[in-house]
């Protein structure tokens, strides 16, 4: 087997609404709606979150007569009475129909909170397209942090928003922030207990690694007085430097990046020597900035032949312009295309799920590491 | 509480059932909805989708169009897609939003049909009912749209109605039914809703008889009887004796022209407290009960179903299940020796009950997770399967 090409693709995010909402520790999720609305969500999650997800299955008459609100009261009561591990929080999740009939959830939540002594929140999965509404995944991310209560004072912790996984422990951000006096970097996935999760409400700043959490960050700034910076994962050293400058401004500190940058340049050179002229196919569908990735790889001296990427977001525009101008033979494909079958044949280099585990120079280091590993595996099987 | 599901996922909805019923017929289906209704079907409810994607679309109706009742974009979308794909017919499906605002799907279908030269079938699915209701609606509406009187009747011609992969699995059971019928001298003219073309379905009125293999085929069978005078028999040839009994019923019906209830009557009562519970689709479950009775002399068999139960084909003691609580009570209040059903039901059986569980995966419950473990119970295979279960699980006669 000759190694002519490798593919770079993120692990399929496999996010799903339930998996994301279940990031809130000890929270019970109650779907409310017709049978058609959540079968796929519940099925995909029932093995993992079986005791934490319930479904109130409504019939036509329940909706039309408004009887469903009585059913909801009964359902919440039964869950609170019968679930083995009593929930510390509950999220009511409704669909399109409910958005149309305009249910007053605020009063329902107040009643439930008073009765059961735990926070109740509501997430509306309104899938009727509307240009004036934020994208669903933004609302979904916001729903996670709606549970955070305002705290008396801020602590020296930083929140990471927008990813499904916490930062890997070997990430330089830990060391850099530690030197800057930051006590801990918090991520929702790190908490097992709901009361511990509340610590995120007293952090001094939010770093938003993916645009999906922008709405959440904006809302947290307004409600919890937590400032934020949008630093979507980049693979370009120049861009990483700019992002660290933004973090410096946010926290009022200064970082010495030279050591990390120098080390990374060695790693890149090593990887290039190993890979030689092997071409790369980049699947950018799970990458926040696919054109930035293609640009960075090209600038480092790798050969990028193919890129799967959808519409270009604003924060990837500059890289898109650069790629158009400088990588003229790059084949750019839409993500939904028969060429996807290519991945069944080519070697696949896996990045972390939604890039959450890596940021900054560590992200590029991780990319180089998996490129090398995949190349060695390919060589051994050749 | 009947409507609260804490252990099971919601079952396959009627929208998916209707989509499945019209699969592979060269039609273009449009679900009138917001977004997302097709996700169930494509990912969890239709085992054929991955190999054979269809021209099924979502109208993705915007919030403003719903509020203002603007159906123009939907009609435009259908017209554009018909021009692009040239389908044999169009199916227009309802979903929770059209149900709520009372969209006149029939009127819409007529309006579109007047502009196109192909049939446009409206399907009053709501997303609130289960798959069997959706299949039933789709088969009936398709039949009403395409079937005409036949000039001749084939004396050994038979249609299979309600042969859906959601109940029968992908191929084995249906192939076995077809083989069984053909070996016994029957000529299958059409099979509703798997493995037939639209042209084959159009020949259905030349049949002497209909065989209804699931609840979903009953409405079409009754309409065919009323409209074209074709009698029907209900049941699957499950087990050796079960198969033979079904053949007798078929011969009798074709001779007399009188429909039979397929060997299961409401006035038949359980002679003793039930020892066996079958949880599943009614017609398939009835056929398995027949097999247990005739091949193994097991008489005290009760059937329970979350799906459609037809009064004519239920025995006293059979039970409709409205929710998890019903199933839990049934299992707690009775001492079944054996419970047969989808693997997801096993968790409802309390260990102290010492009940044997025989798993028959059912797609509308556990989706495609277990579909490869779905056995064919047709003819001798059914007898062998039961025998194997008895030997493996109890090692004794019951």
Count of discrete alpha- or pi-helical segments spanning 4 or more residues of chain A: 16
Average pLDDT metric of chain B: 91
β-strand percent of chain A reads 15-25%
Total beta strand runs of chain A = 13
Helix content percent band of chain A: 40-55%
Give the DSSP E fraction of chain B (strand runs of 2 or more residues).
15-25%
Features:
heterodimer, A: 382 residues, alpha/beta, five-stranded parallel beta sheet, four-stranded parallel beta sheet, 13 strands, B: 398 residues, Rossmann fold, 3 domains, 16 helices
Task: Outline the structure in words.
The complex is a heterodimer of chains A (382) and B (398). Chain A is α/β, with parallel strands linked by helices. Chain A has helices at residues 17-21, 35-49, 60-65, 68-82, 96-101, 105-116, 136-145, 172-179, 194-197, 214-224, 237-251, 258-275, 290-300, 317-326, 342-345, 361-381, and strands at residues 5-10, 27-33, 53-57, 89-94, 120-124, 155-161, 184-186, 203-208, 228-230, 279-283, 303-308, 331-333, 347-351. In chain A, helix 14 (317-326) links the parallel strand 11 and strand 12 (331-333). The longest helix of chain A is centred in the last third of the chain and has 21 residues, at 361-381. The radius of gyration of chain A is 23 Å and the shape is globular. Residues 9-14 and 338-346 of chain A have low confidence and may be disordered. By secondary structure, chain B is an alpha/beta fold. Chain B folds into 3 domains: 14-145, 3-Layer(aba) Sandwich (Rossmann fold); 147-256, Nitrogenase molybdenum iron protein domain (Rossmann fold), CATH 3.40.50; 276-393, 3-Layer(aba) Sandwich (Rossmann fold), CATH 3.40.50. Chain B is 41% helix and 15% strand. Chain B has helices spanning 14-21, 37-45, 63-68, 72-85, 96-101, 105-115, 131-146, 165-168, 172-183, 198-202, 218-228, 240-256, 282-296, 324-333, 363-366, 380-393; strands spanning 4-5, 27-31, 56-58, 89-93, 120-123, 154-161, 187-192, 207-212, 232-234, 276-279, 301-305, 319-320, 338-341, 356-359. In chain B, the strands form 3 sheets. In chain B, strands 12-11-10-13-14 form a 5-stranded parallel β-sheet, with helices on one face. A 4-stranded parallel β-sheet of chain B has the order 3-2-4-5, sandwiched between helices. In chain B, helix 2 links the parallel strand 2 (27-31) and strand 3. Chain B is globular. The two termini of chain B are 34 Å apart. The mean pLDDT of chain B is 91. At the A-B interface, helix 2, strand 3, helix 3, helix 4 and helix 5 of A face strand 1, helix 1, helix 2, helix 3 and helix 5 of B.
